[in-house]
Amino acid sequence: MKAIALCRYLAMAAAMVFCLPAQADETCMSPYIAKIQGQEDYVYVWTLGVEGIGDEQDKLVTIDTRPGSDTYGRVVGSLSVGGRNEAHHSGLSDDRKYLWAGGLDTNKIFVFDIHTDPGKPVLHKVITDFVESTGGLVGPHTFYALPGRMMITALSNNVDHGGRTGMAEYNNNGEYIATHWIPTDADLMGAVKSGKLADGYGYDVRVRADLNIMLTSSFTGWSNYMMDFGTMLQDSAAMQRFGHTMVVWDMHARKPLKVLDVPGTPLEIRCAWDPDHRYCFTSTALTSQIWLIYEDDAGEWQAKAVADIGDPSTIPLPVDISITADDKGLWVDTFMEGKARYFDISDPHAPKQVYEKTIGSQINMVSQSWDGKRVYFSSSLLGNWDKTGDADEQYVKLYHWDGNELKHQWTVDFYKEGLGRSHQMRFGAYALYGKRPAGETRLAAVVQ
Amino acid sequence: MRHAARAGLHALARGVLVAGLIAVQASARTSGELDTGRAFDESQARGPGDVKEGYERADYRTRSRSLLDRRGARKDLIRFALDPPLGLPPVPVPADNPLTRTKIELGRKLFFDRRLSINDTLSCATCHIPEQGFTNNELRTPVGVEGRSVLRNSPTLYNVAYQKHLFLDGREISLENQVWQPMTAHNEMAAPSIGYVIRKLRRMRDYEGMFERAFDGRGPDVLTIGQALASYQRTLLAADSPFDRWYFDGRADAVDESVKRGFALFSGKAQCIVCHRVREDHALFIDHRFHNTGLGYAASVGGNEPDTTRVQLAPGVFADLSRASIDAVTQQRLPNDLGLYRITEDPGDRWKFRTQTLRNVSLTAPYMHNGRFDTLREVIDFYDRGGVPNELLSPLIRPLGLMEWEKQDLEAFLHSLTGGNVADLVADAFAVPIGDLSPEGPNWAHENTLGY
């Protein structure tokens, strides 16, 4: 007990030193990253190449988001990286100088320099040996900054292309350090299997540094996420290969503590910011529920479903979620409906939907500014899962949120621009580096 | 009698093969075990490590295996070709590609090498997974480069050495030729050309000297790559099953009475044996012919697609998804699969597919050319119904009128066909390092480019 108490004390002390003064980025990213409190200057969009569209390869697209700029709401840069790698998620390094972006298919990791000129990212490094270095992890997904490190979750493995997988830890130079496997029944690695399931699957990772807790969630392996969505839905064998677990880890020791049953495929994890709010949220993609992962009065981490998202029987397919900085609201996007929903989560045990709006024929990611006033949406889920025909809209849209209503500001049509499918969005700002755009004298962003 | 005949043939075959092998392989080892390592858990050889048995129920419990435990031990594979397991005939080996250990080892390395695909993501073993019966238990139809859909279920490679017609439509005539199709098919490994594969292999430093040692100084080329891969696949011989021990070795206690009754049905009332043949001294359970069972017809023109599809969302949780919802996210529309017709263009060959072996069938779900059935019981029910009527239905397919207990006995018989040496083949496969891109490997992002 003393040892645990000491660890908690040290973890909180570390959080005080490293996290709280800097706080965090726009509501959903690592607490170790410098954050933009004011106006972001650019949105970097990790974009999938599409056969028949432009140069057909993946690219980092830069959109100008500076109000008053001549190019406000328009594409100002497009950096092609070669191949269709199944561009998916991206994450910033702790110093926010580099953006790491992964390919779920080819396992390549592209590291972009976004600090030398925030308006013109350049390709700094390509990591090509992720699978070999990590001992067989496939599908680099979440890029989550820890001090001097990048934690990268994977979705699959090079043996059967199924869902058993792990996480890889790299340093900021892009050098491999360690692999942390998700616990399975055969090797729980010291964790407690709290329910019926220990599938070994992976997806997202988030930390609560003050609680010395790391959480991972679970999706599916390469064979499924690369497969044509309609074909997969009709493949009863494939539909059995989805994850239904989350794992609570000792963050500092990188040791799994407890495997939680979260049936229905828990994807994105969003943790509350208030130190007294000892919980995180996730949504289950297939069963369309919001789940609360929380520390109970006895200090045990638990998981429970706390709300339905739309009508689960129609499979709305909740994808990205985004928590507000005050822990009072949660945006939930449902891919099949093209809708964004806003839940009041003031009572985390009983979220209530208070607003919804159809954004497009399909929707995936949502990124909000720290103050919650600007909400960006993108459209692509996976290269072979997106809708077909006219419903295959590919966009980034900005809305203003006044607490009651989303008001549309602009749309970038990624097909008309010859770009591809828009996925992950990350913010950039000159002020992060003590710089300003050419011709401007003010610092656009307020940065802590 | 059966056993004596088989022994005589095998002795003859051994004489021929051994003479050939000794000429090229003076240092033949007698032990099958090359590197034992840690003890191999034989249960790993019989199904995915991600165990989904009972997944349809809400009380499903995982029994997932650790990938770190997936370790094997090298075996002397050539011994299976020299002396095929009980129940198999001598292995046909082309005169211009005699089996040698160096070729088998090279072919095995190639088989597990993901770098042979255009983007370093897929190997032969991606769709022919050792512990999944050298097929894929986890998908009805495989997924190729960039997620491209593939028309047919991945066939098992166990005992592929005996196939006269490669692919389910029979379009290839030898394993040596066959290997190039998945490597260069746009929706499989998608190598842009044969020359691309040769060029890439020449720039992989871990292959330095391997081809030359296996092929008397000859490097990687269109023939040697095919010959090496064919040599490895030719050793994937899996028999000596409980059925073989009973039927060919006369061991009455090798199978239970249900299996014996099942075989009586198989060779009698159900007449499965007409296509899945059993000889006096061996059994391949194939006839090297093509048949229309109606399954392909139903998928092409005869099926009335239901308005909803039952989709499983979690253990014990299902939903009925509308056809419109599924169509909305179906990007890839494949052509109808007309089987042998695609090769001959004879309208009489529509929806004919090659008879598939029943050996090791317990390990090779899902079943049929399109993976339509998840269980053997579904397959038995299909044939009991007489397939799907169509004007080209094989006259061999007719309603069988099987009783429930007869179906159970047939299924018991099919489960008795799992080879006793499967664990050796899988253990050997587990010992092979999977070929993945390293910083030294050929890639545009490396110093060692593809050399253009």
Overview of the structural elements:
Chain A contains four helices and 29 strands. Chain A is mostly beta strands. Chain A has a domain at 298-411: Methylamine Dehydrogenase, Chain H (7 Propeller), CATH 2.130.10. In chain A, the strands form seven sheets. Chain A has a five-stranded mixed sheet with strand order 12-16-15-14-13, with no helix packed on it. The radius of gyration of chain A is 20 Å and the shape is globular. Mean pLDDT of chain A is 92; it is low at 1-25. Helices cover 32% and strands 5% of the residues of chain B. In chain B, strand 4 (308-314) and strand 5 (317-322) form a beta hairpin. In chain B, the strands form three sheets. In chain B, strands 1-2 form a two-stranded antiparallel ribbon. Chain B has a two-stranded antiparallel sheet with strand order 3-6. Chain B folds into two domains: 2-239 and 421-430, Cytochrome Bc1 Complex, Chain D, domain 2, CATH 1.10.760.10; 242-300 and 307-415, Cytochrome Bc1 Complex, Chain D, domain 2 (Orthogonal Bundle). Chains A and B meet through helix 4 of A and strand 4, strand 5 and helix 13 of B.
